[in-house]
Amino acid sequence: MVDELRYGSVVAGADTKRRILDVALDAFGRDGYAATSLDGLAEGLGIRKQTILYWFSSKRDLFEAVIDDTAADLADAFDEVSDSGLTGLEQVQAIVDQAFRLAVRRPEVLGLVREVTRPGSLTASRLATRVRPLFDRARDFLLREMHAGRIRCSDPAMLLLSLYSTVVGMVTELEVARTVGFEPTLRATVMRRRELMRFLRAALSPENPAPVIA
Amino acid sequence: MVDELRYGSVVAGADTKRRILDVALDAFGRDGYAATSLDGLAEGLGIRKQTILYWFSSKRDLFEAVIDDTAADLADAFDEVSDSGLTGLEQVQAIVDQAFRLAVRRPEVLGLVREVTRPGSLTASRLATRVRPLFDRARDFLLREMHAGRIRCSDPAMLLLSLYSTVVGMVTELEVARTVGFEPTLRATVMRRRELMRFLRAALSPENPAPVIA
DNA sequence: CACGTTGTCTACCAGTTGGTAGACGTATTG
DNA sequence: CAATACGTCTACCAACTGGTAGACAACGTG
Q: What is the pTM of this model?
């Protein structure tokens, strides 16, 4: 009772900022930007909205901080894969594994990705500039693997777009999956991952053993 | 001036309902449910919010009406394809064409699909039950084509999920496309469609058996 | 110990939200 | 022509929105 009056840095300190970011990621990822209110976030945190506005000057500011934070996480996750030295479909497999792990453990992250890549999103450029390097690296990877004859030749950027759509969709479209009869159980998820890899393997395998393109 | 006072059924009549549905589809599809306000819609229509609430008893009611309406449109578009009698990859091609046409001419529709298939969406079941028959038909189609040897064998429902993800993603992810360097021009769209078909052809062709990895 | 800094709070606020109540003009119909 | 149904409106409203102003307690430092 009396403790409640003893607010100040001792009670929470700067880790409040961390907690706000976490809860905000959750809410923005699950409900979207517009459907998330500062009051709601504050209530979930057991603090007042004004404390949020102390750490982040506005709702949009908070949103952008969440994006930056998440982009850093994503970059780390994929750096790990690309540093693994795997080649061809094995690296693709590793990325798919990573994506599914994310979908199971932190679905909000993928929700945020979905939210922020919505056509016309005002903050699209935010995640874009953060994630752009990842895309460039992935494109280079595809190009290399094409030359090495391990992946079917095509426009690497376009192919990457197809891959992205397929993987993110497969990982994100839970409601659609449910509609076609897959309840979101672990078993069904594992099956989805396996089918996805089969699909990608078919889509990426080089038709001819070693197509040489100048 | 004086005309404005002469409201009543003569001025607009029941086509007001139609106009509301159209504008609402636009807004819900572009901005999402939460970011759309009845006042905003009304202003865009040159009427008062209360008129909207006369035709639709609540915002949610309007949203569901829009979904039903859109589902009917989608069903028509795909009935057309499946009645065409095309087989194998040719029907797939026809569906992709249909999807791209939709993306160019009525992007809001795909925006609505995206909105309503969001994980945890409260109205997911709405579109789901409406679109379910389409999915079933598509699955049967895939199964038939597999037996006929025109499409690579796999679990048809799972394969359908992959196809859905790829096509909808490719058609929807405009911001991601921009990030990898494709401005949303007509030319780039045509290229995206072509690449998508190449991708799907590779993924579906039976004569491209995936190397089996346990 | 005095004093500024930091982190949280209470108290507000103006604007917007979805929604209700009811007036009013028009058209239809007995 | 009276009565009724219909479609739109004006007038509100309580709840909620993001955001400001400023009090206040704890801490760190001279």
A: 0.90
